[in-house]
Amino acid sequence: MNNILTMPIISLCDIIEYINDGKRCLKEGEALLNAGHVIGCGVNNQIKTEIVGLCLQTSNLKGAPHSVKIHLQSATPKGWICTCSCKAGAGGKCKHIIACLLYLYRNYLDELSCTDLEQAWGQQKKKFRIENMQPV
Ligand SMILES: [Zn+2]
């Protein structure tokens, strides 16, 4: 059995091509990522071409995080299918999705299961009690 994870690799150019004219989302997404609001981002252990991630709510950090899904089944950004549970997420280009795309660009991702994501959120909630995170 081959256990080597074939993680999808994306380039910065791909992300910019995907965003197209949504430059504001790029700026906001990067701010979210730099503020540490992306938690538990990884490769779906069931579907290897899917990236799953959680992103804290900008206006309510302690609320249930937004759930981001990025399907990279296509080699070209036009074929990516991204969704987010926030209001703007239906368009596929909200700041949470961009933050996760940038996270993927910058990090080597591990495989995650649904349970791992729940645990990531659980650990984040513990952190809130110790640190005082600021909204972006
Ligand atoms: Zn969103």
What does this structure look like?
A hairpin with a 5-residue loop joins strand 1 and strand 2 (50-55). The model has no long low-confidence stretch (mean pLDDT 89). The chain contains 4 helices and 5 strands, in the order ααββββαβα. The longest helix has 17 residues, at 114-130. A 5-stranded mixed beta sheet has the order 4-3-2-1-5, sandwiched between helices. By secondary structure, the protein is of the alpha+beta class. It has one domain. It has helices at residues 12-19, 23-34, 95-106, 114-130; strands spanning 38-44, 50-55, 66-71, 81-84, 111-112. The protein binds zinc ion. Residues 66, 84, 86, 88-89, 94, 96-97 line the site of zinc ion.
What's the SSE blueprint?
Elements: H1 12-19, H2 23-34, E1 38-44, E2 50-55, E3 66-71, E4 81-84, H3 95-106, E5 111-112, H4 114-130
Parallel strand pairs: 1-5
Antiparallel strand pairs: 1-2, 2-3, 3-4
Helix pairs in contact: 2-3
